[in-house]
Amino acid sequence: MTSDQYAVAVPFYDLWHEDGHVPEIREKLPPLLKGSVLEIGAGTGLVTELIADTTDGEVFALEPSLGMRSVLLSRLARRRDLLERVTVLPYGALDVDLDEPVDLIVMIAVLYAIDDRETLWATLARQLVPGGRLVFNFTERPAPAPGDEAELGSYRVGRHTYELWGRTLDVEGERVSARFRYLVRHKGVVISEDVVDTVTHRPSGDTLRAELTEAGFTPEEAPEGLLVWRLAK
């Protein structure tokens, strides 16, 4: 049995992310992709496919959500050329333990979901070869303020409209509680609705720099919106 807290988001995932950070990632990430790659939080495979198409190395796509993983595997199934090189791992970021270390770790739209970053950095360091790199997206912004619900996205699919709504419930330090509603409408009438409460963690840039330095990483130049940290040799 599995408890998949992301299941209700799966039908909305590609619609929302193709309208969000993914196009920018497709532009900025490829020059950083070399060798073998571990992707943390692969989701439905939007970035996984980009990674596999850019590097000739082996790719490990880590995704704990059964719903997300199912779409990812379906995406790979239509790409027979990738089936030999992409391994899908059903783990969370703190549980990964590869057979051998990789050259690069990519973590897109995942950082905020993890509260135990001390364990995260140590775990990821063990998956990298000496001198390997960690790449993730990060933009420092003011903490959101609790307020009214707002529409985050609306997408027409045939005769239905898929809507994503969200509101911040509470902010305490870097901990942010929020509520999301996933709606499907037909002729304006709601025919499907799911509500999910989430907790994310939004560290400052200074906090991340201190943590990664302590974990044995050093910063390198990176495109705007991405951070690159290299593990000591």
Automatic annotation (TrEMBL):
Q: Could you tell me the keywords of this UniProt record?
A: Methyltransferase, Transferase
Q: Which GO terms describe its biological process?
A: methylation
Record Gene3D superfamilies: Vaccinia Virus protein VP39 (3.40.50.150)
Entry-linked Pfam families: Methyltransf_12
Q: Which GO terms describe its molecular function?
A: methyltransferase activity
Q: Which CDD domains match?
A: AdoMet_MTases
Q: Which residue intervals define the domain Methyltransferase type in the entry?
A: 38-134
In terms of domain of life, where is this protein from?
Answer: Bacteria
Q: Which InterPro entries match?
A: Methyltransf_12, SAM-dependent_MTases_sf
Protein name (record) = SAM-dependent methyltransferase
